[in-house]
Specification:
The chain is mainly alpha-helical and 462 residues long. It has 22 helices and two strands. The chain has a two-stranded antiparallel ribbon with strand order 1-2.
Length: 462
């Protein structure tokens, strides 16, 4: 909140930054698009700022609008612009800017996050690092305890990211692109036993072969590997490692000048910020990235990334309880998907973007905005067979199971979880979100043979 000057508003009135922008813009006779050109944002983003959908909390954003609208910085509660620093020996001399203040991380009850849910680790094995170093999954066909696959995969990713373990000779550079395609296929098919071998090995190899700072090809491939690792770590509720993997992806994407990878980094960072409870920051990251002019010049892939970013912002609004804002942004994402003609675009960054995946997103978003019946209506419009991957079908079934649980339809919830297990057993048995739901069902009502069997296979019941 800020207090405008008395001649602009009634004494004592408090005006939000977005409202002040709207009033000043209209008084100057500017359209949304015209103000957008002055500030470097699209007209749609200016509209979001004005209506409070995208919070105006960033100091640089506030200064940008103050300058464009010829308002004193104090009107937005900012200090007057600092005088230019004195230059000595080619270096500016003066006070440094303060670090941004972020909300403290929160620890609360388990919640679903785009189909994932934080839970307390129930089976943290003291010797997992040693286990990960053994040939438990020495080949893609090796069998492992699926209830522990998530922990094993996390441990192997951690060691690869930290450079721990016995180094192995890197594979030929020409095979890395094929290896990444196979790792992505493992993720899409929820083959986590295989992914636990491929993805850490790919990260190690990428570092071994990316010593040349000018090697943009290897930097770009390693950035994609870290983005895939981030998605997996988010799924496994490993936020600390997720932040680390995302930042590695950013550095590599910048070195490779990979616009799409940088946009996907922004999306994953917005997800991690949302999981930490930093909703304003998550909105700002996602919507500002979606509005970046570089994405508008790279065709269909840029449109798909923009849609994924807008979709992420919509989910954040659902988390904040803003149902109308969530639906408005989801409709905006659907309009972007329609521009692509119904095709699934960008499978290797956001798992694919299309009208169908936008509708899949609506299930979880409506659930968390407090309308499980609307979530069920959205689910009824989806053909599971038409979804682009096993991972997406498994996610859809998981979200539908949550919807049934919230509606009190217990038997339908269990039935849907069993369908998810048939679709992707390793995902169902290893995923913390599913385990939390199964555990909740066990303690909240009568159990069945099917539910107990699912709980045993998922490691919920020893």
């Amino acid at each position: 909140m800020m207090r405008p000057t008395d001649h602009e508003h009634p004494r004592g009135a408090e005006v939000k930054p977005g409202e002040l922008v709207r009033q000043t813009r209209q008084a100057k006779g500017l359209t949304l698009a015209e103000l957008g050109k002055l500030t470097g944002y699209s007209g749609a983003q200016v509209s979001r700022f004005e209506r409070g959908i995208s919070p105006m909390t960033d100091v640089d954003v506030l200064r940008c609008f103050a300058d464009a609208l010829e308002l004193p910085h104090q009107a937005f509660g900012l200090a007057p612009p600092a005088p230019r620093p004195e230059i000595r020996h080619g270096q500016p001399i003066g006070a440094t800017s303060v670090f941004p203040r972020l909300p403290a991380p929160r620890v609360g009850t388990p919640r679903w996050e785009d189909g994932e849910e934080p839970v307390r680790r129930r089976k943290l094995l003291a010797g997992l690092a040693a286990t990960a170093a053994t040939p438990l999954l020495a080949s893609a066909t090796a069998q492992a305890d699926e209830a522990l696959l998530g922990e094993l995969l996390v441990a192997r990713l951690r060691d690869a990211m930290l450079g721990l373990g016995t180094p192995t000779p890197p594979p030929p550079p020409e095979t890395l692109a094929t290896d990444f395609a196979r790792a992505l296929a493992d993720f899409d098919a929820c083959r986590y036993a295989s992914l636990a071998v491929r993805l850490p090995r790919l990260i190690r190899a990428g570092h071994a072969l990316s010593g040349d700072r000018d090697d943009t090809t290897h930097h770009a491939l390693l950035a994609k590997s870290y983005l895939l690792a981030t998605r997996m770590l988010v799924k496994m509720d490993e936020q600390q490692l997720g932040w680390m993997a995302a930042d590695r992806a950013r550095q590599l994407a910048e070195a490779a000048s990979d616009i799409l990878a940088l946009a996907e980094f922004a999306r994953q960072t917005a997800v991690l910020a949302r999981k930490a409870g930093w909703h304003d920051q998550a909105l700002t990251i996602a919507l500002c990235a979606a509005d970046h002019p570089d994405l508008r010049g790279i065709g269909r892939a840029g449109t798909a990334v923009r849609g994924l970013l807008v979709q992420s912002a919509a989910y954040t609004l659902a988390r904040r309880g803003d149902r109308d804002g969530m639906r408005e942004l989801t409709d905006e994402a659907a309009a972007l998907a329609k521009e692509l003609g119904g095709a699934t675009v960008l499978r290797d960054h956001g798992g694919g973007f299309s009208p169908l995946t936008v509708q899949l997103h609506r299930i979880s978003a409506e659930n968390h905005a407090g309308d499980p019946r609307a979530a069920l209506d959205a689910a009824r419009t989806i053909s599971l067979k038409a979804l682009p991957s096993v991972e997406r079908r498994s996610r859809a079934l998981g979200d539908i199971a949550v919807t049934y649980d919230r509606l009190g339809r217990r038997s339908d919830c269990v039935r849907t979880l069993l369908a998810a297990e048939r679709c992707a057993p390793q995902e169902t048995h290893a995923r913390p979100a599913t385990k939390a739901l199964i555990s909740s069902l066990l303690v909240s009502g009568p159990t069945s043979t099917e539910l107990r069997g699912l709980a045993e296979r998922s490691g919920v019941l020893a």
